[in-house]
Amino acid sequence: MPHEFKSLRHFVAVAEAGSVGKAAQQLHMAQPPLSVHIRNLETQIGAALFHRGPGGMRLTDAGSALYARAREALALANEGFESARAIAGGRRGRLSIGYMFSLGYAWLPRLVPAWRKAMPNVELQFVEMSALTCEAQILSHKVTIGLCMPQPTRADLVSAMVGSEPLRVAMPSHSPLSRSRAVPVARLQGLRLVGLPTLKEDADTSLVSSLLRRHRVTMQVVERVETVHAAMALVLAGEGYAIVPACAAAGAPTGVVLRPLQDAAERFDVAACWRRDLASPLVDPFVAVARAVFGARAKG
Questions:
Q1: How far, in Å, CA of 241 to CA of 256, rounded?
Q2: Which segments of 53-172 does DSSP mark as H helices, in order?
């Protein structure tokens, strides 16, 4: 503890004990050094703080004035030290969570209550991201941890998979395919595709492209949009079909339906992502809570 706070602590102990001897026992120190501390404090202030007599130590008017403020100062200092320890230990703090719109309705209602139960003293903030802006928002410190889909590949970001979403084909509700409980991938042959963004320059490396290639299916990409809800808006407008994560169903507009794909084991991975140089004790608890809620295997 800084010297000034130590002097105040010694002074308060003597004032409350009524004697240097009793205060020294409570402070686990010898009596002579404590007496020196009190006299040095009086010299520094320029006034006697105690009436010394056979009955013990009584506060002077100056001592009473200092005592009231000293207790407040020590209480504030102790509160500050405890807050710093709590933040350093991850028991308190502030966490800015970035999420994609498609994950909002399906993920946040389950994730947020679990996090608040595990870390009730951590303040949460939420920032909506897109696949094309997530990296920049994390790197610029606007987001502490981002829930990203697909997973960023930058070397200055760290990712941990926390869950995954099965594939769904989004289509207008009047489409003949909407009458199927599950759509064979082969039925997509020749249809128009509203594509989701890819973080790599080569769109042929995307999950959807790999799926279509495996089934020898060709779809014409008529548009590549930034967000899932933009893709569904174009589906509603009749521009084509979209292959989206199942969680998108929670925010699907009226007139758009989502159906599972047959023989499609691929899934969209959801990763928690943060800056590589981030030194926050809240990262590991967040990843653990997200994995517990969404059942992801430890990976990444």
A1: 10
A2: 61-88, 101-118, 134-139
